[in-house]
Each structure stands twice: as C-alpha cells, then as structure tokens.
Amino acid sequence: MSDFTPTAEQHTIITYPPMPLRVVAGAGTGKTTTIVERLAQAAAAGDDPTRALGMTFTNKAADELRSRLRERLGDRDDGREVEVSTYHGFASSILDEFGAFAGYNPSASLMDEGHRSELAYRILHELESTDLDLSSLPQRRDDLLVTADALTSNLLDPVDVDQLLPVNPDDVWTKRASLVHAASRYNEAKKALDFLEYADLIKQAVEIVENFPNVAEQIASRYDSILLDEYQDTDPAQRRLLAAVFANGTSVTAVGDADQTIYEWRGASLENFDRFPVHFSAADGTPAETLPLSINRRSDRIILDLANTIQQLIPRIEESKPLAPHDAAGEGSLTTAWFRTDEDESTWIAEQISMRHDDGIAWSDMAILCRKRSAIPSIVAQLRDADIPFSVSSMGELLTIPEVADLLAWLRVLSDPANEPSLLRIWMGGRFRIGLHTITRLARWCGRDPSRNLAIALEHLDDISELEPDEEDRLAEFLLLYRDLHTSSQVTSVPAILAMTIERLGFWDEVAALRPGHAVTARINIGRFSSLANHWRPLDGHPTLDAFLRYVDALDDAQPAEELEAAGDVTGEVVQVITAHAAKGLEWPIVFLPSLAEGTFPSRVRIYDDPDRSALALPYPVRLDRASFTDADAAGPGDERTRILKKRHTDAEWRLAYVAVTRAKHELLMSGHVWDRDVTKPRKPSPLLTIATDLPGAVITIWTDDPGTKPEQPSHIEEVVAPDPLFSSGWGDELRSRIADQRWIPNEYPDMVHEVELRSEQLSMQIANLPTASSSQNEPPLVTSVTNLVALAECPLKFKWIHHDRLPRKPRDSALRGTQFHRKVELHNLGIVALDDPHVSTYDSILIDAPGEDISPSKGDPWDAFSTSRFADQHPRFVEVPFVLALDEGTIRGK
Description:
The structure is a single chain. This protein is α/β, with parallel strands linked by helices. A seven-stranded parallel sheet has the order 13-14-12-15-16-11-17, with helices on both faces. Helix content is about 45%, strand content about 10%.
C-alpha cells in the first residue's frame, strides 16, 4: 500500500471531508483500495479506527476488506481496528444486543435453500386450499418461497396484503391470497422450528431501530464514519435499516455502480443507489455529493471499448463516466465466433483453452461464463474429453457429476436397500460389473411377489440356481461391503458415514488412477459434497441419513440452490465454469462467453413484474421500492405497462453483459451457435455478439453463414461395437448366421424343434435392429496441431511431460508478452493501428545477440525489430487463417 499512487479521482475521494458521499465506481476501478485509503487518511488525522464501520455483502468480501485495512493501518499495540461486517452481520449484531425488544430468539439457526425447499414442501402437503393447483408441487413450492421472500423483504405481514383484496377478486388475486396464506403458514412453521432467514434478520432489526429511536441513536453514536460497499446490491429493507441509524448527517460513503445492479431478481433496488444523496443527506439537508471512479486498472483497451459500448445502452447516473484505460493497459484481444452446433462451439472452446495452456497459461487464469445453466453440460462434456481440469459452480451440476452421483447412490442404498435405481447404478459400475444378464435372473426370482426385491434377492443367492459362480462372487462381494457399511452407519453421523464410504470404497485410489485433469476435478467435487454434509443440520429431529437425503433432494429441486455452488472454495489449477451472475466480483486474464444467441443473452422476459397479471408480484402500493415502479403503476394494465417492464428487463440484461465483459483482463472470446437439442428453428447471433463482432479490432475466427438443417440428435443410448473375444465378426453377425442356418435347430435342440423355431421367428423380427460389426478395429487416426509437432521436434521428453506424463508447469509472463506482441503484429497486418507500443522495458528481446553484447533499446525492442524488417511493408493475403492438412498418417491443424 505504501507504493500506491492515487489517480486524481481517487485522491479527491480519499481526501473528501467527513460528510455523506456517493462514489460511482466503474468495474475494475480500484474501489476497495480507494475506500481503504480513505479510512487510512482519517486514521492518520487522528481518528479512532474503532469508530469506523465497513460493510459489504459476503463474508469473503468482508475478510478481504478487513485484511486490506490491517495491512494498510499496520499492527496496533492497542488492538484497535476498523470494524468490518456484512450487511446481514450488522443486523445480527443489533439483534444480539437489542433483540429482546422484538422477541428475537438468539438460539435460532439460519436456513439455507435446502431447508427452505424442504419446509415449503411440508407446508404445501398440509394445505387444504382449493385455489392453488397442487398437481405441480415443485412449481407451487417456488411460488410459495417467492411470495414469502417478497413479504419479508418489503417488511410486510400478510394482513398488509389482505387489506388490498378486492370485493370481487379475479383469478390473480385469488391465487395471490392463497399464496400469502401459505407464506404465513410457512413463516409460523419457521418460527416454531427456531429457524431464521437472512431477510428475517433485516426485518427484525428494522423493527427495533424504528420502534425504539434511542436504540438507533445509541448505535449511531458509536461511529464517526461508515463505508458501504456494493451499495447497488442492497434491497429496500436494508436501506431502511441503514437510514434509520445513519441518515442523520453521519459521514456515510456509499460505493457502488448502478451499471452492475444485476440482482434485482432477488431484491436489489436501483432506487437505493440512485436516491442515496437524498436518503443520506448532510446534516443541513443538502443532498450528498457524487464523485466518480472511472480509471480501470483491470482490463485492456479493446475490452473497455466493448464495455463502454454496452454501457451506452443502459440508463445511467448523470455523474458516472465511461471506463478509461490505465496507462499500463495493453491493447487486449477480442475474438468472436459463430458455430453450427453447440457441440462445435464447445469443442472449439476446449481447443482454445488447451492451446493457451500449452503456451504457458495456467488453467486457473481462464474461465467460462454462461448466461444460463443449460449451456454448461455441453461445455463440461468437451472439457472432460480434452482432459481439462475444471470446476463447475452450478447448482444442477454437482449432484450429477459421476463421482458424486456414485457416492450419493451408496448413501441412498445404505438408507433404503430397496432403492433399486441407486442399487443398479452401483452394480453396473466399474467396481462390480454386474450386467443385465445377472440382474434379469435376480428379477426373475423376485417375480411378481411384492414382498421381494433385488435387495432381498441378495439374501437368497443359494436359491437362485441360474447364477454362474463368477456372478455369485461379485454379488457376494457387494453384499459383504454393504453389510459392513450398513452396520457402521447405524451408529455414526452423516459426515462420518460419507467419509467411511469414501475410504472403504477406495474412491481416492480410483481418483488417482484418472487422467490428471479428471483427477483434479473429481477431488474438488467430492470435497464440495463432503463440505455440504459437514455443514448440514436437519429442520427438526435427529440428523439421520434419511433426513440428509431428504434435504439433498429438496436442495436439488431448489432454484437457485446456492449450497451446491458454495459447498467449498474452488482450489487448485482448474478452469472455472460459472454463471455470469456468480462471476460478479471475480476476474481472470482470459474469459470465454459462450451461447450468445438471440433470446439467450440478452434473455427474453418470462414473467413481468405486473401485479395485475402475476400473482407473484405484490401490488405496487405496498412495496418499499414503489418509487421505482411509478411509471408502470401510472400506466395501468395493458401494452404500455408491458413495454415499460420489458424495458426494465432488457436494461438488467445489458447490465449483466457489462459485468460479464469486464471480468476479462487481457483476452475475451465470445461465441454462439445455431443448433442444439432445444430449438426447432435456427438461432441468430445475439445483439451482444453482434456488437462485439462489429467493434474495431475484434477478430472473427469462425462464422457459419449457412447453418443448414438441424442435425439429427444422437440417441440417448449409443450403439458401440467393440471387439468380441468369442465372435470375430461380432455377436450380431453370428446370431444372424445362426438364424439363417436351418440345420442348427434340429442339431442343437432335437427334442424342442417346434418351440425353438417359434422363438427363432420372434428373434428374426428384431434382428434388423442389431448393430453390425465394424469393418475395421484399427485405432482412430492421429489428429494433432502444428504446435504439438514443433514441441515434439524440439524436445520429445518435454512433449511427453506436457501431453502424457504431465508435470506441473509454472506460468510464464514471457508467454503472455509474446502473445501480446504476436497480437500487435497481427493487427498491423490487418491494417489496424494498435494503441500501445511494446517497449524493451516490458518485452523480452526477440533478437539473438553475441554473448556479452549490449542490447540497445532500438535493437532489443521487438516492435522496432519488426517495423524495420522487410516484413513490415509486406501485405499478407491471409492473417491467422486456420488450415487442416490431411495426410495418410493423420490430420494436422494449424494457422
């Protein structure tokens, strides 16, 4: 921090007098550093650090702010330091001290999404309402939770909504009244179980400080300065809490960016940041001043050009400014592509990531940001095929990852041996290899007896005479392991059961045998699932395995189930696959934005926030953010209100696009595709992809102008013909030849000729569906790149370490600088003037000089070397055009 040199904008904010202040901080403009320096300035002037309070949203952000403050202010002998908290932590501290005034139960526990989903299902099962369609319980569960959230975050009780109920309610009002009643039952049950949600902390804290003004005064008197970080993400109830305590002329500095308000769907209000100068005016009533932060210290120039282009599409605060590059910013890289299918796009992304890693870029320096979770499975499949280690931060993916799904199947069988889907997953896996032939024999023994199932069949293997000895051995092996785990699971906790299962099954040994990329991913996923079990507690009753599995099922249904995203911190060298919403606050040198098709990003409106059309939308008059909907309320129901609400949604999507783009430091790759399984008509590129493609300096790699017809989707069960150890031409051909041979029936079954002939006729009707034997069992042809061939020619041992026996590779700055210089030459050949000039002080020399010879700036500067060479004035016909060279030995790809 001592080497920090503030910009003029930062200096103005740091030295601003102790008065209310709003800071409009654009993406990557160093807001954390600025507010830390503002506090350090006050401490240097003699202010007591303990009389300063900093608030932000997440525990991680609070820890970072606390660490930065300690580093800047130094270790103090008296132990005094700035108090740092989350917004919900601040509310919780009020309840801990003054909660008795509001009937707060200090022993109450916080709910997570799994608990909320589980309790909502319980309430719906108990309802006797005929006004709610309970045939689709997951949808009604979502409706109930949305209504309960809306009531609490607007500081409402059900009676506040009931008072607006018309004399002759329409269908929307009837459904709303039923949902409000169900939400009331939900809140009562929550209280009876001693559970709280984060919104409950805020609501109860507001009740205390507004009903007991002396409490608010007592809290306010403890602080001289307040710092509110990410203020654009606060909801109206949080603003009411903060204003009740600090809107008295206190030195409140709110830092945020209206262009990054992307959480409106969970309560964040644009009005909060927009009207901060009025909500937190000076002691004499003068509105608070606004100061900008616009010098971006993160991204290169072309990325900022795109961000500013997007920013122009968003309604903005008057005092905000476009992002400006820092003096040290490079030119950057923006690449766009448009593919025929989602598989083509995902394959290209995996290839680009592998190429950059081969050039020395660390896996963790690259990320894939998806607008929708539906884009993740296709990308994950290609990353897995390319042996790229990755971490999926998505709610729907963790429980479907193979290693986690296997663990979950064991837990389900330990809880209920009759859970046949889980039992079959275990049996048919690689450990026991129990096939359909064996399972069919067990099922035949069970017959139609309802008292029998596959688990019971295991106890009667001696009675099933059809089983072969090796089949009995594998089933006996499973039964022995199952009994051991089941016995131990009766007397231990869920985390211990999970750890014991992992150990007894040898999961870590299996993980170690995977390819390196798969092994890293598997360790992370198992760790995240274990963390989920360690932090779980039941709604009520004992923490049994049955209760945990009910919680997991409810959690899997929840939208969004954040616990499956945040079960554990991502560690290790992995490529992160994450949603654009979850990426806020993060940054990477290289970012991929896939699936940029029309209607996907920006996405279409699904549900309008219109109380006359949607029972989930509370009437505007009872909402705390009613001022944000003045125009929609005045328009009344109809097309004009729809237009206004649609515009609000579109603005929110462009703000999300602005956030996604500004996560990239040096390189941004944006792509989309025409066809996938979910569409019947060809997609078009989204406006976001079009804007990026038209930006000066952007490079188009692949662009599919003629998508053709929709390709046939592969079957869910792919027919794969493998070499057969018994039948050289394949078992299908062998069966065909036997049926065609009329002599084999009387020869093989002389006493059952008629019966076998009937069975043979039945088989003949199905024979056309059998797979035919492959004409060749040779290995697939070689497909490689020019880069790989060059690496192999230079050093075969190095090639082996990179592609086969992989060793850890230290990221090289020279590789990145070489890529940037290469990019500048490429732009030159395209006729584009780069905005930066590489210099010898920042780039490695590309000239080979005699030992001991001094390298002058003109001789060692790579750009000078290029610009004075014979190549500088030549105009290539093609620049970075991909090619494919097909040879007898295989295929070579390059540019």
